[in-house]
Amino acid sequence: MPIALTGIKPSGQPHLGNLLGMFRPALELARQYDALYFIADYHALTTLHDGKALRAYSDEVAATWLALGLDPERTLLYRQSDVPQVMELSWILSCFTAKGVLDRAHAYKDAVAQEREVSAGTYTYPVLMSADILAFDANFVPVGKDQKQHVEICRDIALRFNHTYGDILVPPEPLIREEVQTIPGLDGRKMSKSYNNTIPLFAPTAALRKRVMQIQTDSTPVEAPKDADASPVFQLFRHFASAEEAADLRARLMAGGTGWAVAKDALFQAIERSLAEPRRIFTTWMEDRDRLHRVLAAGGERARARAERRMRPVRRAVGAGA
Ligand code: TRP
After folding, report:
1. Burial of 169 (0-12, 13-18, 19+ CB in 10 A)
2. Are residues 242 and 272 in the same domain?
3. Which of 24, 84, 142, 160 is deepest in the core (most CB within 10 A)?
4. Residue 7 is inside which H or E element, if any?
5. 129 alpha carbon to ligand 1 midpoint, in Å?
6. What is the model's pLDDT at position 193?
7. What residue numbers bound the domain in which 252 lies?
8. 231 Cα–ligand 1 center, Å
9. According to the model, what pLDDT value does residue 201 have?
10. From the CA of 9, how far away is ligand 1's center (Å)?
11. pLDDT at site 180
């Protein structure tokens, strides 16, 4: 079975955009691939300098995977920082990475453009990401469009390494998720933590309702016909309702006589219906951290064994170690 690997940075609470854009498609993919899904906590360290928060977010990401149905026996779930081989490989790969390539990486260029102070970690982010991928011989890397360049950089690095030492590393390919449709946030822009317009995945019922009610709508009067497709309320509704329910609400909005408050209530009900059970499971995991940490520890052990298998020929090739 081909290997699919992807990482999530634990830098905030997972939201509906992550569910629809990432978690659900990844769980679907895990049926056809040898899937490795990890928590990229050392990547989050480029921006999050609060140990307690980083640990809490890492736990949340792990509990989210489990709540949404990831089976840790079949899919390898682990925390990046539990696999020191990745850090070791990262250094080795950095010696095969042209500085010019990193100069052209979007994330770094954006940081420079915004005149943010750029750490060496942000600059070498693509190298660590390459190590994540190459330590596990991943054939495919499911990512959003924004990460495509990073996977291409990884491929480049693998080929350069192999050019010197022979075919040791497996050059991966990105598996770009065609954005079925951008998931809109409260203000209609793409749902994103950086816009502060997200609906958290496992917010308690009352908080979820409040968030849904905050979705921006125009001031069309109740009686007037409304452009359902242009509204984030309806765009989100479609993802949580059946085709018939969506067609029905759409027709009612277009006909006039149905206000946005009614539509928001329908959206709230639909989200609540589909997430109540995963939220219950999520809460159970978060309330039993020892059990959660045991799952991560077991994943970490298997991940280290796999990465170690890849590292032996790498060390031998470069002339490191015994
Ligand atoms: N950089 C990715 C992101 O921000 C997260 C990530 C880290 C990753 N390492 C990875 C994704 C390896 C795929 C493969 O979304």
Report:
1. buried
2. yes
3. 142
4. strand 3-8
5. 6
6. 87
7. 202-283
8. 31
9. 96
10. 7
11. 59
The CATH number assigned to the domain holding 114 equals 3.40.50.620
Ligand 1 centroid–CA 177 distance in Å is: 14
Low-confidence spans in the chain with pLDDT less than 50: none
Based on the structure, what is the number of domains in the chain? Answer: 2
Tokens in use for 320? 């490191």
Q: Which atom of ligand 1 sits closest to the CA of residue 5?
A: 14
Query: What is the C-alpha separation between 274 and 280, in angstroms, rounded?
Result: 11
Is 95 in the same domain as 110? yes
> Residue 129 falls within a domain, yes or no?
yes
Atom 6 of ligand 1: nearest residue by CA position = 7
Q: How many whole angstroms from 208 Cα to the centroid of ligand 1?
A: 28
Q: Report the CATH number at residue 243.
A: 1.10.240.10
Tell me the pairing of strands 76-79 and 34-39: parallel
Which residues' Cβ are closer than 6 Å to ligand 1? 5-7, 9, 40, 43, 129, 132-133, 141, 143, 147, 150
Using most ligand atoms within 8 A of CB, pick from 3, 5, 8 the residue to mutate for ligand 1: 8
**Residue-wise DSSP of 82-151:** G-HHHHHHHHHHHTTS-HHHHHT-HHHHHHHHTT----HHHHTHHHHHHHHHHTTT-SEEEE-GGGHHHH
Residue of 143, 148, 173, 193 with the most ligand 1 atoms within 8 Å of its CB, for mutation: 143
* DSSP states along 217-277: -----TTS---GGG-HHHHHHHHHS-HHHHHHHHHHHHHSS--HHHHHHHHHHHHHHHHHH
The Cα-based distances of 164 to 19, 129, 138, 171 in angstroms read 41, 21, 20, 14
Residue 245 pLDDT = 97
Domain contains 193: no
282: its two tokens: 């999520």
The structure tokens 């596990």 sit at: 136
- Does residue 256 sit in the same domain as residue 151? no
